[in-house]
Amino acid sequence: MDEKRYLTFALTKGRLAAKTLSLLEQAGITCEEMRDKESRKLVFVNEEQRLKFFLAKGPDVPTYVEYGAADIGVTGKDELLEEGRRVYEVLDLGFGKCRMCVCGPARAGELLQHHEMIRVATKYPVIAKDYFYNKKHQTVDIIKLNGSVELGPIVGLSDVIVDIVETGSTLRENGLEVLEEICPLSARMIVNRVSMQMETERIKALILKLRGLLAEEPQQEPVPRALPYT
Amino acid sequence: MGKSLLHTPEGVRDIYGEEYARKLFIEQKLHETIKRYGYRDIQTPTFEFFDVYSREIGTTPSSQLYKFFDKEGNTLSLRPDFTPSCARCAAKYFMDETGPIRLTYSGNTFLNTSSLQGKRGEVTQMGAELMMEPSVRADAEMICLVIDALKDCGLTDFQITVGEVEYFKGLCAQAGLEGEVELSLRDFISAKNYFGAQELLERQKVRKDYAKVLLRLADMVLGASDLSEARLVQNERSLQAVERLEQLYRVLQQYGAEKYVSFDLGLLSKYNYYTGVIFKGYTYGVGDAIVTGGRYDSLLSYFGKRGPAIGFMVVVDDLMEALSRQNLAPRIREDGLLALYEEEAFPDALRYAQEQRAKGICVELSPVKDRAEAERFAAVRKGNSVILFPAEGTPQSIGTE
Questions:
Q1: Where does A5-159 show beta strands of DSSP type E?
Q2: Which of B128, B140, B152, B341 is the Cys-Cys partner for B251 at CB 3.0 to 4.6 Å?
């Protein structure tokens, strides 16, 4: 019999990767090489279990998985919505919880009540467009920013922003608040469509095991609710 | 201008040299296999009236069609696939035909897709349609034809996943789900999003036992012989779907093709279009299915003919990519002759070339200044055998190792 094919995981750099690895460890999947913080390797291998791991930027994870460069990926729901890649979304991992929201100064709330044209600054133009066009039926001018989106309404670039809200403290410190919630977010496990069909047994076993683990200890992490600005 | 004219618009590209030779070879292989099953070639126009690809008939969202107008103001569209055109032809030319109609087609198709997603705007599709044959043996013929065609192209490690959309429709009808809810459930299930489906079913207060069966769909990738789990439902429509797959499996066994096939009742794409068996072909090296197909018994009726139909389509470009990623791409030998001549020797060289061409050998005839230039030429064309006709003396072969 020939060697088993490697299963490749694309993980999102940072906190999400650490949490994913500890969850995978509970499911019996380990990668010693990744613990070495000094390592400059880009791809980490577990020869025994025939697994490979690499780290990528969140928005790139669905891309790697869609093209089959990785069989399995873990990234935020926000990136999946924004990228719109054709992948199987198989698990809600329950961590990395936050919400996609429309935020702005309290007085901007009024602008969302009518169908008037407003300006929206965001890192997530696809999500913002879908929300305003298809859910609210409001014509908006979307301005794509690459970071510190909160600045938008403060310096007068936009009326509101669409952004991820975790605790809401950055918003409050800057005199902004959550005006509307678009959707809840959390880390998701995604699988390439071909891998799911070609490596069904291995991947299905992994999903069922993780689903079992997630059901055992549900919601270690409470959903952070942003406090209304007072 | 100059250089700025050199590159092609996004989504399209030139295919030339050895790559194109390989592509032609693959197309020829596929075509031979399809012909062996008795399918007749058909060529349909590159563009048709937009209505032929409209929402009810086609599978491509209108926003992704290339549209333009003719002089009378009719909206036209470049074809995104061949199936509606084949159905139109069947209705037009075979209106009174009641026996099976077998058609095969090949050509480029066009999609106006979003930018920077790495999607191609023009791909070559080859496929076949079997119309007016409702039996499970027609389903099996299609699937086995796909398997044979892929094998003939040199692919070894691939899989055909088969589903039946009626199974899901039966479950939805039983659970009282319809319209938007049914569609969002379909989206969750075909994305294998168990959690999303679970949440939706809870929100809709679907009876626990129905919900359980529906959720199992998001999980269900069954081994070929094991459909027993799928039988645990209590509605006639779904049971008939399972029954159909079991019959299909028996015919596939008669073909000896069962090892390439597995069942996935959560395979639900293009769901309003397909009416029964649906299948996709997967292999390593490309991110999505390289073959799609299924039964669409209501399609012909849009063109005024009643009758069942089943078809499949291979994206030749994706198949090529899979083959080259798996190091299975066919080696194309450039076995022609390169006949070089110094100007005075042209009559000799020409006579020689024509003799060889008459025998069916490819001869490329080109002038050179001297032997040194001929040698440089030969060095570039490693695959060819090179013969030089010098101004004086006898022809000599060059650079053969």
A1: 7-12, 43-46, 51-56, 72-76, 88-92, 98-104, 118-122, 140-144
A2: B140
Residues whose CB falls within 8 Å of the CB of residue B167, separated by 6 or more in sequence, listed in order: B217, B230, B233, B237, B238, B241, B242, B265
pLDDT digits (tens, 9 = 90+) for A208-220: 899 889 888 655 5
- Cα separation, B147 vs B131, whole angstroms: 20
Mean pLDDT by 10 residues, chain B (401 residues): 78 90 95 97 96 83 92 95 93 89 96 74 95 95 97 94 92 88 88 85 88 81 67 87 94 94 86 86 89 92 92 95 91 83 94 94 92 88 85 83 49
Amino acid occupying residue B188: F
DSSP string over A155-211: HTS-SEEEEEESSSHHHHHTT-EEEEEEEEE-EEEEE-HHHHHHTHHHHHHHHHHHH
pLDDT tier for residue A10 given thresholds of 50, 70 and 90: very high
pLDDT at B380: 84
Q: Quick check: A230 pLDDT over 50?
A: no
In angstroms, what separates the C-alpha of B283 from chain A's closest C-alpha? 7
Domains with residue ranges and CATH for chain A: 7-96+186-216 (3.40.190.10), 99-182 (3.40.190.10)
Q: What token pair was written down for B93?
A: 């030319």
Query: What's the predicted TM-score (pTM) here?
Result: 0.84
B288: nearest CB among A86, A92, A191: A86
Statement to judge: residues B201 and B136 lie in one domain: yes
Number of neighbouring beta carbons within 10 Å of residue A140: 22
Residues B174, B207, single domain; the answer is yes
Query: Which residue in A has a C-alpha nearest to residue B289's C-alpha?
Result: A194
Of A68, A87, A197, the CB nearest to B286: A68
Query: Which structural domain, as residue segments, surrounds residue B371?
Result: 337-398
For residues B186 and B172, what is the distance between their CA atoms, to the nearest angstrom? 10
A193 and B221 within 8 Å at the Cβ level: the answer is no
Based on the fold, state whether residues B219 and B367 are members of the same structural domain.
no
Q: What CATH number does residue B146 fall under?
A: 3.30.930.10
